[in-house]
Amino acid sequence: MDSRVSDDLDQRLLHALQVNGRAHFSRIARDLGVSERTIIRRYQRLRALGLRVVGQPVASRLGLARWLLRLHCTPDAAGTIAEALARRPDTYWVTLASGGTELYCAVNVPVSGQHDNPLLRKLPRTPQVLSISAHCMLRIFVGATSTWHATRFRADHNTAVDSGTCAATRVPLDATDHTLFAELARDGRATLPELAAAADRSPSSIQRHLDRLRGAGALSLAVDFDPQLLGYHMATRIWLNVTPAHLRSVGETLATHPEIAFAAAVTGDSNLVASGIFRTPDDLYDYVDRRIGQLPGIQSIQTAPTLREVKRLALAIP
User: Fold this and answer.
1) Residue range 1-10, pLDDT digits in tens
2) pTM of the model
3) CATH classification of 1-49, choosing from 1.10.3720.10, 3.30.565.10, 3.40.50.300, 1.10.10.10?
4) Furthest-apart CA pair in the chain: how many Å?
5) 199-213 burial code (b ≥16 CB/10 A, e <16)
């Protein structure tokens, strides 16, 4: 099987799924001007290449705070620690940076108990962890994701934006909601009968729960697809130090850039972190030099290319 995205129709299908990950194939076919059978065939091919539509919890609407952990490890231990973090149910994504000694981990913790989280207490006592910095995500401007999204085709109005951990009203969850989150984390396009069977509820009840979660902003849908199949081979974490007066404007500007899959204001020495996807190192250079380097208020920029995504877009509701 050809391991590439073949043409413009594949790319438009990815975009359509980003606009509405649960849209019926007949609607997508109508919007794209092709037959439903063609869309189904293309979707199945992309699925075989690794495409996932993933249901994601929006942390701030569920009483959760999202933290980004940045670890420097001994060269022989980074991979092992990354795999151990990936096995934890409270981690959202885990990434190894180039060089093999630095890794990143996103974790959701209850706002009320975020300073007593066992992971935040355990990691500093791990001998192979040379240093650790924990950054609370204060405002997520775009994404709340790993860097593996088809960023080029992101629909900004449908991206999971987590507008802070304290201001949003918490959405209470029942047992059915928890089941739906777990099932949609595996397949965001699971059918109503499939979800109803998993939750032991009627399809009409499941539809009401989905409408409530999505309407309240507690559930979002994301497209997970390897950008290398789209020709983007340079996934990079970007750390920025921005003057406070320009932090919001820079974050909102990054959210409009098609290269950026994720951007958030965070605590720590760097107050803004982003994930970008580029075709080549030269494209990354041009982006830093001509796009973000020209924005007012930026005092320093650090880049850390991604070596491997160990875990991405997993359910993380404590």
Assistant:
1) 455 556 889 9
2) 0.81
3) 1.10.10.10
4) 58
5) bebeeeebeebbeeb
